[in-house]
Design goal:
Blueprint: H1 2-19, H2 28-34, H3 36-52, H4 58-70, E1 73-74, E2 79-80, E3 85-86, E4 93-94, E5 99-100, E6 105-106, E7 111-113, E8 125-126, E9 131-132, E10 137-139, E11 143-144, E12 149-150, E13 155-156, E14 165-167, E15 172-174, H5 194-210, H6 232-239
Length: 246
Amino acid sequence: MIARTVAEIRRDVAAARTRDPAAAGVGWLEILITWPGVQALLAHRLAGALYRARVPLLPRLVAAICRSLTGIEIHPAAAIGAGLFIDHGMGVVIGETAEVGDNVTIYQGVTLGGTGFATGKRHPTVEDNVTIGSGAKLLGPIRVGHGSKIGANTVVIHDVLPNCTVVGNPGHPVRVEGRRLEGPDADWVRLPDPIADAIKGLAHRIEALEHGADPDSEDEGDGAAGGYQLPQGDVDRAVGPNPAGG
């Protein structure tokens, strides 16, 4: 039991060192006592062991104290795999029936939550090597496939295939530059946004139509090049005497 606990702590510290640039050169003891994500995992293991042993009150008490100290709420019954890294962690919520695989990275403000008042399995299942960006909400008994990436502030309510990148609200599957990348190295600023791309396309067509040009043409010149010119008669009437007098 002691050997297993020590091994788990080592994995937690190693995950922080590997995936958090701020941990470079920081000693294991400092990470252990100052990294809230590591502390939350230690508290969850204790609460989980007490919960499985059917000890009353204490599991939830440990979880509540951990939430007060770290800002991270993990239900004692949640299944957490090895090598989970919670970066910063403030506002992270992991529900009762959530399942998190190995080597998962979660950033601050993430929710693995349920919907409605359903009973039974009602929280997400996150497979191995998944990265979940800041503020993302994964809701319901969905499954997020191996190696997937969830963009910041994405709301996911449907299953995610392996090795996909999902962005938007509701989440839309896209792919980063056509490559299947794994690990917490996504450039969140440059993730593709299909909704924004569609809006830009509509704006381009509207602007082209307003100028009388072919919306599918890149040339928005005037006159013979496709621009609309007001007929001369209309121009004369526009600059003539005001029919209302004055």
